[in-house]
């Protein structure tokens, strides 16, 4: 089946899950997703849990606590909202691990090309950022002052902007020299 | 500020998606007009930049810190449509490839952090440019952009108890109303994240001023 069809099915499933308002059908959805994920079940579940914990748990715990203080039942809300978030994130991660995303969102040649270029640059930038941070740590003996931190951040962010623009030009020249015209 | 999947009801994110799609198409067209045939490599560079800027944690007086989104920097340098498009593309990549933010709420995140932040920052900068101290203008542009975006996010979250309820009338999406989201979300952006964005805009634009003579990209308005 073409990736675009999978993408439309994924969007449909995402909307369907977002309409579910009780945990019973969400548990059935979760069981289906776990079955579909096969060998990658643990890695996807771990990533989904981390992403849910970053935001959903904090909000749902604080609201559940207010319900508890009012002597109202909080389990339904807590389980349903976290399970829905978990299912939606799990579905997204499963989709991205099984389907070629660039092919799936290739509704326009220009946009899909831009997406591929952007993601590859983001990966490069992530590596550069990690190198930059490690290099700074290894060269810093004393705790920097707030002014020094600001100076570092300003130069680092502007440096990344400059690097990006220069690399953009180089990439364009490289693409042109290989006969690529959009 | 990213809203994750599962907290916004379809009755909110579907209309938001319908509103965002034509805006994104216009932004894409305006972006292509604004920056010639180098656009693909250049746009991907700006998108990577807006992704990277979210990785820098900036401390502010008071002992806390946060990250900027770079809307004001991109809007001042390349115009609000280009900034809105690049930020939206970044949010799309974060949602789909990194699982951060969620695709169902992409439109709301894009409207808030892409469009509202970029246009607010751009027009605040345009209005105050050459009238008051340049550093103050840059700070206010960054600060106002992210605060305006936070209002959109606070409203989107705060109306959920009215729109998404279960059979017993209890909230089943985001649970807190506007009386909580407006002070919590907007308040934290007024006092913390807005200050971070303002500082980032001021610092980065200061360094951009220094290097702009070496490499001024086509489409840049500085």
Percent in strands of chain A? under 5%
Number of strands of chain A: 0
Q: Low-confidence segments of chain B, ≥5 residues, pLDDT <50?
A: none
Q: What is the radius of gyration of chain A?
A: 23 Å
In order across it, which strands form the biggest sheet of chain B?
1-2
Count of the domains of chain B: 1
Nearest-integer average pLDDT of chain A: 84
Give the averaged pLDDT of chain B, no decimals. 84
**How would you classify the quaternary structure?**
heterodimer
Count, helices of chain B: 8
N-to-C order of helices and strands of chain B: HHEEHHHHHH
User: Total number of helical segments of chain A?
Assistant: 7
The top-level CATH class of chain B is Mainly Alpha
Element-level helix/strand string of chain A: HHHHHHH
* CATH fold category name of chain B: Arp2/3 complex 21 kDa subunit ARPC3
Q: Structural class, judged by helices and strands of chain A? A: mainly alpha
Our estimate of the beta-strand percent of chain B is under 5%
Alpha-carbon distance between the termini of chain A?
27 Å
Major beta sheet summary of chain B = 2 strands, antiparallel
Helix content of chain B: 55-70%
